[in-house]
């Protein structure tokens, strides 16, 4: 057997099982080796049967004295009953709906049983324990730290562990790629030992060393990649966008509001960077409504003043259109702007009285005209979606690229837009500004984005009213509906957020807008069901609309336009409104199944209201009675600071849950967490030691290339 052996060639893997394994991303023995447990059951405590106690998780070793199937009287289930004995005594064992056990376990077999002993009126018994015959050198499922893996329908923990036990020896075939000097300096286990120990640790120390080494791998690759990128940038050039003091001061004076201190600091950091002649690579992180767009506008204006183009890319048409309208308001009397998305083509220039909206039956002709204008530098600021990545989009003199909600674009997409930015005449690089409305603490940003400089806007414009947030008890739902009705009759509007688009509770299949959690489908609120209920039963006198990601772009655009123009009173939506949607008249954000969203995401939803002078409200609903879920929502109820919420989210849920695995540089953190402060520190130190002499370590260079495929290791 080799690392590239197809999973279908393993013992007891047929076509059906192979397909199920593929759903978990497992196609080869190597994939299986890197399929890590997410937790462990501690079945190491082996006790005599006479010492069993109610509620304790333990392992016993005994002989099967009796075993038989019977059918329960009430529910007609198959019950397998056994009597297991050792030298100290006997215990009853019961399994449900596993009649095949009588063919596997025979009278006289010596077995290990791991699980909880439970007391009933006849004494102690084992209910559905994990079982394993005691006829081999080492146990796999019992009497040890037992790995628990993510599963898909039709697979069991025993199957996965059995398959892992077949291939774990292949860890010896994995070449060591971290130089010996680093292994010794930081006392790291060899990669082969770590891969064995993560699946079947011999003891606590073996487990700890295995996990630390594999976490180190993830953080080291992240930091090493960042160091290499930083070193390369020192040898690259970019346009020198000179700070035009008078023009920028006039721009700021003309704003209808005063910039906050952190807006001024962030803008100054950016304007200094783009004047250096080295490619800027900066992240602008700001809380909801903190005013990142105006800072980006200053950078784009600076590019224009220096004779260069600027491109602003957003993940959705809604957000791109909003950016375009904002930029027209800020710079429309100074520069030529355009909007380019899959379905929209707009152009605005200072010498035109009106915007030219290239939306007609002849849209292909107008799109071509717009692309020619971009190519010939007849447009200064180009705003768009993924459409800007298209092969036909060519820039003549692009000096600045701004990507909003950059974690929603893959690494390759950001690379494409940056490469498009090369100024054709000199092949210079491009200044790159990433923006995110997800508040990222500076320490976290520096860990994730090691090759980025970080600017943070951590204060809101003065005069903003605090959004009042309440976790509403189910019995007060009618009262909440009444409150929303009163708000709308007073001239306001409301959002209702649901985690699903639609849900068929009968078949228990749902079209998910979020990843499902272990809750029955009937408990999940869906946009279409809520739309029907609210429009036909609750708010029959109001105008209700709906919005979700499966709609066509024009449908979404039309719905948002109606909501903005007050033709819709209540908008029922999925998380498509999470980022950037600006409806100043909306004063109520109602969130169904709030426990299904992270604190950072809830904060994004809450930021859709409170954008004007009206007092705004955020109402949270949940059907979960889980203590942790309630604790999170109670914290959100009291805390309005996005950065504190992000910290709490990290503490409670981890970086993968909070920021997603698409986050730039996050790569695929399978084990690493942002709380791994000590490991992060070691990884950074190691990266800084090796990066300046990277050519000495060809095996490390090979490993970096492998990152572009499937594995971190």
Structure description:
It contains 23 helices and 25 strands. It is globular. The strands form 5 sheets. Strands 13-12-11-14-10-15-16-9-17 form a 9-stranded mixed β-sheet, with helices on both faces. It has a 6-stranded parallel β-sheet with strand order 18-25-24-19-23-22, sandwiched between helices. A 5-stranded mixed β-barrel has the order 2-3-4-6-5. It is an alpha/beta fold and 713 residues long. Helices cover 35% and strands 19% of the residues. A hairpin with a 4-residue loop joins strand 20 and strand 21. Helix 6 (191-199) crosses helix 7, helix 9 packs parallel to helix 10 (292-305) and helix 10 crosses helix 11.
Give the neighbour order of strands across the main sheet.
13-12-11-14-10-15-16-9-17
Radius of gyration: 30 Å
Q: Helical percent range?
A: 25-40%
- Overall mean pLDDT stands at 83
Structure described in brief:
This protein has a nine-stranded mixed sheet with strand order 13-12-11-14-10-15-16-9-17, sandwiched between helices. With 713 residues, the protein is an alpha/beta fold.
SSE topology:
Elements: H1 15-23, H2 29-33, E1 39-42, E2 57-71, E3 78-86, E4 89-96, H3 101-104, E5 110-120, E6 123-127, E7 130-133, E8 145-148, H4 157-167, H5 180-185, H6 191-199, H7 204-233, H8 245-253, H9 261-273, E9 281-286, H10 292-305, E10 309-313, H11 317-331, E11 337-340, E12 345-348, E13 356-357, H12 363-375, E14 381-384, E15 398-404, H13 411-420, E16 431-436, H14 442-448, E17 453-457, E18 468-471, H15 477-489, E19 493-497, E20 500-504, E21 509-512, H16 527-538, E22 544-547, H17 553-564, E23 570-573, E24 586-591, H18 599-606, E25 617-620, H19 627-638, H20 642-653, H21 655-659, H22 677-690, H23 698-706
Parallel strand pairs: 4-6, 9-16, 9-17, 10-14, 10-15, 11-14, 15-16, 18-25, 19-23, 19-24, 22-23, 24-25
Antiparallel strand pairs: 1-8, 2-3, 2-5, 3-4, 5-6, 5-7, 11-12, 12-13, 20-21
